[in-house]
Design goal:
Blueprint lengths: L3 H6 L5 E3 L8 H9 L4 E3 L12 H18 L4 E4 L9 H10 L4 E5 L4 H9 L3 E5 L5 H10 L3 E5 L14 H9 L6 E4 L5 H9 L5 E3 L1 H4 L8 H8 L7 E4 L4 E4 L5 H9 L4 H7 L4 H8 L23 H8 L4
Length: 318
Amino acid sequence: MNNRVTELLHIRYPLIQAPLYFLTSAELVAAVSNAGGLGTLGPHAGQDSLPGSRYIALDRMRKEIRKVKALTANPFAVTLINGPDMSFWRPTAEMLVEEGVEVVLINEVLDAEIYDFFKRHRIKTLYRALTPTIANSKEAEKLGADIIIATGFDEGGTVPCRVIGTFSIVPMIADSVKIPVIAAGGIGDVRGVRAAMALGAEGVFAGSLFLTALENPADEKVKRLIVNSSAEDLLLFRTQPAYYRTLPTDLSPKLAELEAQDTDRETMFKAMNGYHSLWQAMRLGNFDQGVVSTGTGISVIKSVRPAAQIVADLMQDF
């Protein structure tokens, strides 16, 4: 059964694997795409160390894209990597064109020049705001985004600044634009897919579920922790820019204590080891130096499975 998402992206199923930053790899992305979904490479995908410069990161991403293309003939997406000053978007975008990437995920940025660039090169764009609103969704549509990803507070990683759950955000955004909307946040099995479609989404965007994929480069301790945990185990704490969640780690009691003391966001961010927190805990398995962040849909994740099985389970109605 085709819909606008599958037709736009030339994929079998309306399922996008979230980029998950360094917790993606060519093997994971190709497995998702080969199974009929859209795999997505995140920044630092497939890497065992963080790059020393943007140019090193760009070269590494080019190599990872080529690895994906050697493993699948199907479409896949790449995250547009850019610095805070946005000065580096063009070298990245030009590399994506050179490598024949068909779909690009643009996080947060609403810049006419960027959307025009990809439109000229016939590359499909997925727009994902940190905090989805009617206003930024309409602006993305106006600029030429092909699909909007509406993320609810149920997601893992850096959660939206507004506490609006996936069940509420999806119909709100779907009713405000004419282009397809994809639901993100808390989707763990086919029931979440069915609910998202009933709410007006035309596909789903899943991240935490693919952390437990056999092909995911996350530390094995992380996969076991997710499988053996539920949403009841998650700790929510304030930090920059909004909130983070973590499953129990060696660091989490300290974060819980600071949260109980109404500690300011900047101090909380430093206490969680900043953005290195996820790299340390989830990629390297150093639970004393970081957090294991997931969405609230983990309660239904019961095993580590190949990505193809995850796709088949979510997309069984298609």
